[in-house]
Amino acid sequence: MPYPSALRTGVLVALEFLTWLDEHDLDLGGLRQDRHGRRLDAGNTRTYAIRYFLSWTAGRGLTGQLTVPSVPRQQPSRLMDEGSRRQLLKQCLTDSTMALDTRAAGALILLFGLHASHVRHLTATQLTHRDGNSYLTVDRHPFLLPPRLARLLHQPAEAPHTRAALTRTTRSEQWLFPGLLPGRPTSQTGLNSKLLAHGIDTRPARNAALVALSGDLPAPVLASILGLHPNTAVRWAGFAKTSWADYLAARTAGLHWERNATPQK
Predict the structure, then answer these.
(1) Which of 9, 20, 34, 103 is the most buried (most CB within 10 A)?
(2) Which residues in the chain come in under a pLDDT of 50?
(3) Three-state SS at 168
(4) d(Cα 113, Cα 242) in Å, to the nearest integer?
(5) Which among 218, 213, 212 has a CA at the least distance from the CA of 249?
(6) How far apart are CA 130 and CA 97, in angstroms?
């Protein structure tokens, strides 16, 4: 059975593809290989998941046979240095002259390595608050947000003067990053342009964040929290030259200690 995160990714990639066709006034049946190939080249490896949707459309005569090559497996060639990542993250969290949505989106990418496409589709229901802490759920498990970032994300959803301006999904959920069109999130191009204006190039920023996280978290945990495919998390762990062997050993030792410490009835 496919991983739930992989299924969600497939649906999301298909929706982004249809949005891209609409934004470029292209017809699904008239899409040609050269234009399709340029879109893949301009995207990230996640974009290649469109192969499954295109296989479905071709099988029903909705499109021609559009080729999707294998996902590139090389190490990331665009990587922001750690000093720049930390400096830009600090700016996002503290610079009140930046637009609120730019600060929040930039911080999520620089700190957690989220795709900009994931960020723009976040809804208010994925943001929760309990026991004095705020959490964001990207895949199955909520992760703790630093207080500054939590305030950035809660502010647009809770401020009375912006509530009327917030567009909603078909399920009556608020987009955390609403677009100009009613019921739609902010566009990928628009979000990237806002971030780039402040020196945040999304791909190198995300790569740097994932390298940093891979140095602190074992691959299974990273995959579970961020909704990455386990193989993707393993590749990042390998790139960061980390291993979760110590984590597994510590977990085994902890379980052994708990069993021994439990009073026998």
Answers:
(1) 103
(2) 1-2, 159-171, 242-247, 265
(3) strand
(4) 17
(5) 218
(6) 30
CA–CA dist 116, 149 (Å, integer): 16
DSSP one-letter string for 193-248? HHHHTTT--HHHHHHHHHHHHHHHS-HHHHHHHHT--HHHHHHHHHHTT--SHHHH
CA 5 to chain centre: 11
Dist CA 100 CA 94 (whole Å): 11
Tens-digit pLDDT profile for residues 157-198: 564 444 434 444 444 568 899 888 877 888 888 899 999 999
Phi and psi, residue 165, nearest 5°: -85, -15
Radius of gyration over alpha carbons of the chain, in Å?
Answer: 20
Q: What is the pLDDT of residue 167?
A: 45
pLDDT value, residue 36: 78
